[in-house]
Design a protein that fits this description.
The chain is an all-beta fold. It is built from no helices and 7 strands.
Length: 94
Amino acid sequence: NKSSSTSVKVADKTAPSTPTVNRITTKTVYVTGKAEIGSTVYIYNGSILLGKGKVSNKGTFKIKIKPQKRNTTLKIYAKDAAGNKSGYRSVKVK
């Protein structure tokens, strides 16, 4: 005997890990690093969005920004397709 099958949709409630970010200097125009595959990475200077970009299927991202002043602190986080937000990574411009 075989019962009929049932489809179940599982909601993604797990936030992505906080992105890792490579060094950012006053000459940096592309912020690079690693984050959850398929998520979107956002880069903020205070409340100003500097850039956002999709994470590749290799888990890497490359987002274009305008050069920032030395000692500026940028906040970077990832958001997955389900809307879950990672923690913030604070990076100081060298």
